[in-house]
Amino acid sequence: MTVPFTTLNDGVQIPQLGFGTFKIPPEDTERAVTEALSIGYRHIDTAAIYGNEEGVGKAIAASGLKRDEIFLTTKLWNDMHPRGLARVAISTSLEKLGLDYLDLYLIHWPAPVKYGDSYIEAWDALQEFQAEGLTRSIGVSNFNVEHLDAISGTVPSVNQVELHPTLTQNALRAELAYRGIACEAWSPLGRGADLSDATIIQIAADTERTPAQVIIRWHLQLGHIVIPKSVTPARIAENLDVFNFELTDAQVEAITALDRDARSGSNPALAEF
Fold first, then answer.
1. What average pLDDT does the segment 207-214 reach?
2. Which CATH architecture has domain 5-191+225-230?
3. Which of 89, 111, 231, 236 has the fewest beta carbons under 10 Å from its own?
4. Options 50, 105, 115, 119, the catalytic residue
5. How far apart are the C-alpha atoms of 94 and 97, rounded to whole Å?
């Protein structure tokens, strides 16, 4: 099974489908990531705040895969935005992961309510890290348009945002496309809630696929990078088994029409952490 690549605006290629590790406990992370790598995932997404970078690193080390066969993303937490602290943060992440470089480093949140415009300094730091070879690509997460407007220099390669059938973020996706920034979806299944939608269930029946596979396929056909998460081996495999069917244009449109601005996470402009 071959996962297609998306070419980012800096020329770096990222597997369009990856394995997310949000809320996977540290004690379960190594096992889950090992399972994902063993069946063909080559894109792993973690973050400093998840507390599981060490488990991710152990799984990568034990996989037998070459470093350049794995695409690894981690993220800078909000209280580490100042340049000096950001350098400590990336060094700590690399040490925990057991890696010499990252493939993608993201500012996790702009966090303007608590930390003002410190994300601007963080973006300057990430540009330094890229120039030094500590990370191949740099991007942001949970940035609204006003946050993108505030930073300068290198255009982010990725904006990772909450995105699923009941939160399609149409205006933001259009703006990212205009700016040449790849859109990556976290909570791509709507934290499970979207799986029970009647439209999704009907399309799953029509395609003889599961609701999760239908939603992941919808993301892929819209061009999103997508990082579903599971700790169950059967579901980890199920989420990868999405490249031997296609949704019709009408099915894609029907899923997109489910949007009702159902945000399960925080609004980046209002988040107080």
1. 98
2. Alpha-Beta Barrel (3.20)
3. 231
4. 50
5. 5
